[in-house]
Write a structure and sequence with these properties.
By secondary structure, the protein is an alpha/beta fold. The protein folds into two domains: 206 residues, 5'-nuclease (Rossmann fold, 3-Layer(aba) Sandwich), CATH 3.40.50; 331 residues, no CATH class. The chain has 32 helices and 14 strands. The strands form five sheets. The chain has a four-stranded parallel β-sheet, with helices on both faces. A three-stranded antiparallel β-sheet has the order 1-7-6. Strands 10-11-12 form a three-stranded mixed β-sheet. Strand 6 and strand 7 form a beta hairpin. Helix 4 crosses helix 7, helix 17 packs across helix 18 and helix 23 packs antiparallel against helix 31. The longest helix has 30 residues. Keywords: Translation regulation. One of its GO terms (molecular function) is nuclease activity. InterPro entries: MKT1_C, MKT1_H3TH, MKT1_N, PIN-like_dom_sf, XPG/Rad2, XPG_DNA_repair_N.
Length: 755
């Protein structure tokens, strides 16, 4: 969040200045990626649906591409800098209440009572779209357009200041939030009005003159006012109506320094309770001695990066966190790995906040316990490649629904032997892309290198990717210790082969979705029966089928298809503006969102595991260095993005329409498809629709899709692959008879409805 009320203060004091954009032509602007993305989400995209459907905003790509085109048209050369590892926090997990679940629950209640606009407004304001979940998509778009970006070791603010003050001037101006003025920077662009051809900016010297403060006092004022790294000073933390930036300014003028101010109130109960004196000192040091990545590849405190003779404290780890080797920050900076697991190891805590569905089902909570061993091994791939100090570092997982319970992550006990794939084995792929499925399919020739000291074995990009994916497959039980496919590995191979042999098959690779579905079957989340808490009602979904077994068939098929990314229209209008009317389709489904939340737990876990495996291979020198293919490696890592539930809603509404179309004559038999009063929740039996009628319905109703009927057929082909994989698991008795029967009976029921 910005410095509290500072932006209001700058407007009131007329400190915000405006200039034409042509001033920035042909110069390189360093852009705080999070500030830019936040403004894009709030001012341009304005999409409430991800809070109700999961996934990324459908207009994200169109909005970014429009922004990049506008920057190019104005001859502005951007360098996007995103923040990396978070600062070390001393407060207890979940010490402050998360307001988002209550807002989401309120939105669903409004939606269930047909108050759709009010529900959308509440979803929009719920703050449920998390920036870290968007970054892999953002990086992909920036790479495709050849736009430079990096991740800072810690905050983008310090990195941007370093780049601007560097003798070689990698950037000439900074576009960021006004908080960056706490750092040694003279000016900052706070908004780019690309459509209007203007930009707004602030001058720090002018602000200091207006306040009558020096730079050190200004820093103290900002910390006491409150921003991302510090809460508002408790004696001032009253309602928004009572708080003013000037009140903080007056305190500093009275006591001369921020430290004097907090010491003066040291006996205040709230100051004692929040340990504010320590919080203030830590925030101040985090600004003064922030760590940045230099052009030489070293991570050093900002003062040292600017002036080698600068004095810095020896206990930076107390307010920044324990350091990693510089090599780790380089891979973080290039977007090869994310900061999530690094944060877990440094902080000693893996926090699991409430998901979009609010995590009320027992299935979701059980799943968190089921993936904990895999998350622990993920942590082990990181810790065992670092200094001995990290090998036995205590790390716990804490869940939102039991915030006082710590679940130990004994990462020192995990087996992290990599499966290295050599170049000879890759040649057997015969040009095929390296995926989970192709790694499994070539196991007769893909063998792991057994030498523990196989230094620099992995040279080609494909050998690095294949070794990473093979190691992941071993960790999740798809490859055994003899490097042969397990029952689940065989199931994935057979499911993939079924899809590949389909005459209607496209060039799409389904191996990620197949693997995800099989894990969800193993964990008991992909099933035909309802979750412990059910939400969908005939009030919000008039065609809802409630009679079993048909309801179970539709439930299982819709859940399965919701794992498939839909092909949505470009969210750009003919005049170049980004559309905000994004989802046009059937009724939203909180039941499908609950399943999506389960799927997201698994995809996040698999993504983190993949990143830590490849990082481990780099740090243990299995990968040849130096190399320049980090972007290519990053693009080939799986689970970079999550699907929303759009395909599930499409399948659910199509199938419900097939069995519950229109009222028909009394006495007609509707029980064959499980329709009728109990199924529809209406008075009078309903008639089944033909395939042509259902196709017409989805084409008219699901305008968000490029071709909803074609997407349905894509989804049904994916279903075929899952059914084939489950058959394989059934033969090996890896799934229960109930699970096997559910897929078999749903498939039999579905066949006549697909044509």
């Amino acid at each position: 969040m910005p410095v509290r009320h500072f932006d209001i203060f700058t407007v009131e004091r007329r400190l915000l200045q405006s200039s034409p954009l042509n001033i920035l032509s042909d110069i390189r602007v360093g852009i705080d990626g999070h500030h830019w993305l936040r403004r894009l989400m709030v001012s341009v995209i304005r999409d409430p649906y991800p809070a109700a459907m999961g996934g990324v905003p459908l207009a994200l790509e169109a909005a970014i591409e429009k922004e990049l085109a506008a920057l190019k048209a104005h001859r502005i050369h951007p360098l996007f800098v995103f923040s990396g590892i978070g600062l070390l926090r001393k407060d207890k997990p979940f010490s402050s209440e998360d307001q988002r679940p209550a807002r989401r629950a309120g939105a669903w209640s409004l939606y269930d009572h047909q108050r759709t606009e009010a529900a959308l407004s509440q979803w929009q304001s719920s703050g449920s779209t998390s920036q870290p979940d968007l970054l892999n998509d953002v990086f992909r778009i920036l790479r495709r357009h050849g736009v430079d970006f990096m991740r800072a070791p810690y905050s983008a603010w310090g990195q941007l200041v370093y780049l601007q003050r560097h003798p070689q001037s990698p950037i000439h101006a900074i576009y960021a939030g006004s908080e960056i003025l706490t750092f040694p920077v003279e000016k900052v662009i706070v908004s780019l009005e690309l459509d209007k051809g203007t930009f707004a900016w602030l001058s720090k010297p002018q602000i200091l003159r207006d306040l009558g403060l020096d730079a050190e006092q200004f820093l103290d004022v900002c910390i006491l006012a409150g921003f991302d790294w510090s809460a508002t000073f408790p004696p001032l933390a009253v309602s928004n109506l009572g708080f003013t930036f000037k009140a903080v300014h007056d305190l500093i003028k009275q006591h001369k320094t921020g430290f004097n101010t907090v010491q003066h109130y040291a006996d205040n109960p709230e100051v004692i309770k929040t340990k504010y004196v320590d919080q203030f000192c830590r925030a101040r040091c985090a600004v003064k001695y922030h760590l940045v990545l230099t052009t030489e590849g070293a991570v050093v405190p900002l003062p040292t990066a600017i002036d080698e003779a600068a004095d810095v404290p020896s206990d930076i780890h107390e307010f920044i966190g324990y350091r990693f080797p510089d090599e780790v920050y380089q891979y973080l900076g290039r977007g090869l790995v994310g900061p999530q697991v690094l944060n877990n190891l440094v902080s000693g805590v893996l926090l699991e906040t409430a998901p979009l569905c609010n995590g009320e089902t027992s299935e979701y909570r059980k799943l968190l316990a089921q993936v904990l061993p895999l998350r622990t091994c993920t942590l082990s791939f990181l810790s065992k490649s670092l200094h001995q100090f990290y090998h036995n570092r205590k790390v716990v997982s804490v869940y939102f629904f039991e915030p006082t319970v710590e679940h130990a992550m004994a990462h020192a006990q995990c087996d992290t032997n990599p499966h290295l794939v050599d170049a000879d084995a890759i040649r057997a792929f015969d040009g095929a892309s390296v995926t989970f499925a192709t790694c499994l399919a070539h196991l007769p020739v893909v063998r792991s290198t057994t030498a523990a000291d196989a230094t620099g074995t992995l040279i080609q990009t494909d050998t690095v990717v294949a070794s990473t994916l093979s190691t992941v497959l071993a960790q999740i039980g798809f490859i055994d210790k003899q490097h042969q496919a397990t029952a689940f590995g065989e199931a994935l191979t057979k499911g993939y082969r079924r899809l590949s042999n389909d005459k209607r098959a496209t060039s799409e690779d389904w191996s990620q979705e197949l693997l995800l579905a099989l894990l969800l079957v193993r964990y008991g989340a992909l099933k035909a029966s309802p979750f412990s808490t059910t939400y969908d009602t005939v009030r919000s979904d008039p065609r809802l089928v409630t009679a079993e077994p048909v309801a179970g068939h539709i439930r299982l098929i819709a859940r399965t298809l919701s794992l498939v990314p839909g092909k949505y229209k470009k969210s750009t209008a003919s005049d170049g503006s980004v559309s905000t009317a994004l989802w046009t389709g059937g009724p939203l489904s909180r039941d499908l969102l609950a399943f999506n939340s389960c799927a997201r737990v698994v995809t996040k876990t698999l993504r983190s595991l993949t990143e830590m495996v490849i990082l481990n291979l780099f740090l243990t020198n299995h990968i040849a260095k130096p190399r320049d293919d980090h972007a290519a490696l990053a693009q080939q890592l799986p689970y970079a993005s999550d699907a929303n539930v759009g395909m599930g809603i499409l399948a659910k509404q199509y199938l419900q329409f097939r069995v519950n179309q229109l009222p028909k004559s009394p006495g007609a038999d509707s029980e064959a498809h499980g329709t009728g009063d109990a199924a529809a929740g209406k008075s009078g039996p309903l008639a089944a629709a033909t395939s042509a009628e259902a196709d017409k319905y989805v084409n008219a109703s699901f305008g968000a899709f490029v071709d909803p009927v074609a997407d349905l057929q894509r989804g049904f082909r994916f279903w075929d692959g899952i059914v084939e994989a489950v058959k394989s698991l059934t033969v090996g008795k890896e799934v229960s008879a109930d699970v096997a029967r559910a897929f078999s009976e749903a498939d039999t029921w579905l066949r006549p409805l697909r044509n």
